């Protein structure tokens, strides 16, 4: 027997009670577990694979081919094409997903565009397209795609052209799972006066060579396949004649060449660190050689010559402002030699008129920089320290050095530099590249009053973009109708210049006093060592003086310094140089025998003993206080002294008196700057010198004359007696002055 189910009719009140009861049972069951399970937000990632970033009638210019058949002119792109990929990165399937696209009115200014890209468009959207992504759920790990096309009839584009913010989001119900803001450009007319734009492409990095010229195992990490420097080179190799300005670092190329010839590698051994020689045929050496050849070939194929800045990005301001002559000369070398080093490594001379700055410099340093045209980041200007968002004006500004040199400075756009250096690639490379292009369009829509505009795109020296972003950015910039990617001379000469003098920001405080004193001492010791090397010797501790100087310059590199001072690598470089110099100086002892002069003149012999160290050239210097005369000078000729040998040099002297006189003896390098040894000799003089006797004789004569004058008595005064009338008496023949006449 079968039974049909009976339909039960619940009253509304009972229905409510039942729902609440069942809900309570469900909550109790959920809470009865060891841990309550809360709903998790689905892990959805939105990636935009394609976006028509520039569209409108102005995307196509007048035909350049006169033989073009009418009607075959290229059609402008007017439809907004969007292709998005949505990936479920969670462990559970997600249903009811929708893709929402919103197009907003054109931004009136660059600040307004930045507000919109930050999430505040400031106006209701012109278009809202909200469609279900797919009917079924998106499983864990699955990817769904969506292609959208929007014709001009659906969007009220700006009548005179503009930059329209666009929001793309993945939502479920009222919950936004992933979203991003970008912008597209609508052009009504083809730009008649494009902006002269320079895109600098840096190939830079920290110095690799460490103590003793050896390398750490991870030194070449940036050039390994897929790493930062290798990626930047590969992007340019894949592009056809990319219109960029290459800025390779000379010290990076030198390290590549050094490693290609075989190098010393620091490895961990049983007893600590040890040095192992790597042959030129090893994989590490071949990798360095291959990349060096690729960079050389790339630099030779680019339409624009390369540019260069300071060698190893040394801290010129600190080196110059120390006040020491030798460190100032080191700053001059770092500023001037980079271009010659780059030409040696590339085989192509860089632009001699342009110098690339990556950091602020003090005013006196401007007179050390070669060339009269500077490319500087916005952070190097005084305006960067002012409160509020900067409003970039004309990038070409005049600047005058303390010596009166007239310089032209191109200041990089700060917002474009930030977008280049730190792109948000969380939604793929297309969106940040398009955001960058949209920012340049706002510069075009606010043109200068006269003359073509200028734009400098200068990423950070440590630029680390993905291949996708770098490739997408380069492609979109070179096809933007309002941009003319060109070389630096064109940027400097053809653009309108501002008349307001540029003021550079004062550099940050340099290395601490401890590191400063160590470096200053090392620079002085190196100069002394170069003067001490014999003609047949060209190395100090296995390295040339030029290599040691390079190590000191690299020790001041901004790559090796952090906010609170130099890194351990910088300090190790300086100490390593000083160690090699100390071994060259070795040890010299001076004989401390007392000297006795038995006559007024004599010789002061000084004996030197070379107890440790290689052959070096030295000079001996004597000094005394007033009682000794050195008729042939107080410095000896240059002496060559080798280990285990001794030499004696004599200094003629003349004593001005008797007694014991201290004589200071110094052994220095031939310049007299660096002291190798010092002692004090006692010189005893027992003879009276001719000058002393002459002085004594003169005193005796004066005393005798004075005594004789005191012994002579004066004659009495005579009185003349007259008669009345005032006439004298008749002359008396017996009268004598010595005998008075008595009455």
Characterization of the model:
The strands form eight sheets. The protein has a five-stranded mixed β-sheet. A five-stranded mixed β-sheet has the order 22-29-28-24-26, with no helix packed on it. Helix content is 28%, strand content 24%. The protein is elongated. It contains 16 helices and 29 strands. The longest helix is centred in the C-terminal third of the chain and has 22 residues, at 690-711. 36% of the residues are buried. With 743 residues, the protein is an alpha/beta fold. Mean pLDDT is 85; it is low at 1-38 and 725-743.
> Helical content, roughly?
25-40%
Outline the biggest β-sheet. Answer: 5 strands, mixed
Number of helices: 16
Give the low-pLDDT segments: 1-38, 725-743
Q: Care to count the β-strands?
A: 29
Task: Indicate the structural class.
Answer: alpha/beta
Q: State the end-to-end CA separation.
A: 206 Å
> Order of strands in the sheet with the most strands?
2-8-7-4-5
Using only C-alpha atoms, the radius of gyration works out to 44 Å
